[in-house]
């Protein structure tokens, strides 16, 4: 029995509508080495869909510019990741921002810390990099990573303090902040996090991270790497049926669980989902297309 077959048809239709809206207002990510994939993604998604280009270890930030240009040319919204601890210099950050804004029309970006033991340059974290983003750089919105299950190497109090610092900095600079959560297999944790953010910062929107369509083996590997194994352990305590539901190759069950909370009003600051593609961006875009079109 599917998630929608177990409820009355009218409620099922409402859930489906909310789920479609969350995907249509959502985003996905791709690698910097895939600019040729931009037209294939654009053929599947609504014009202007935000697509993040990641900034991976051992990659220069400038390496993501061709992908950003290709996304803009394809009619999608290019949104770069900037990993603070991976930047070698202030000049690298400033030059990239100028190029990305002027040539690719970037207006939104995602600032992350970058999981390195030691910074490669002057930025110890995303807050330090945010402080170096000039108010007139052309960026209007900045996203920050959020970790409803915690971070594998950062304590929960430090995470909370860092988030408060970044939100305050963004407000002082006149930049609109938003949050993108790490993917999780525990919708209740996501909901609790969203409710707390809404209490403290009601104007800050949240995009809930979902693990895009992938094999269970891939999901398990990334879950351990990204620090979401706590929700896996919780699911295992509930039985293998729960594990199969929420680590299945298709994220529809998690989407419907989130839609239930959104429909009830308990996740009012959740405005969309963000799909982690794990290297399968076209596959993820196809899943989003099917959800949006009802096909």
Features:
15% strand, single chain, TIM Barrel, 12 helices, 295 residues, eight-stranded parallel β-barrel, alpha/beta, 46% helix
Written overview of the protein:
This protein is of the alpha/beta class. It has one domain: TIM Barrel, CATH 3.20.20.220. It has twelve helices and eight strands. The chain has helices spanning 9-24, 38-42, 65-73, 90-104, 126-131, 156-172, 187-200, 216-226, 229-238, 240-246, 252-264, 281-293, and strands spanning 27-30, 50-53, 77-83, 108-112, 141-146, 176-181, 206-211, 270-276. The chain has an eight-stranded parallel β-barrel with strand order 1-2-3-4-5-6-7-8, surrounded by six helices. The mean pLDDT is 84.
Distance between the termini: 19 Å
The percentage of residues in β strands lies in 15-25%
- Indicate the CATH architecture: Alpha-Beta Barrel
The outline comes out as globular
The arrangement of helices and strands along the chain is HEHEHEHEHEHEHEHHHHEH
Classification by helices and strands: alpha/beta
Q: What is the domain tally? A: 1
Helix content: 40-55%
Strand ordering within the main sheet: 1-2-3-4-5-6-7-8
Query: What's the rounded overall pLDDT mean?
Result: 84
Contiguous helical run count: 12
Please tally the β strands and state the result.
Answer: 8
CATH class value? Alpha Beta
CATH topology: TIM Barrel
Multimeric organization: single chain
| Low confidence ranges | none
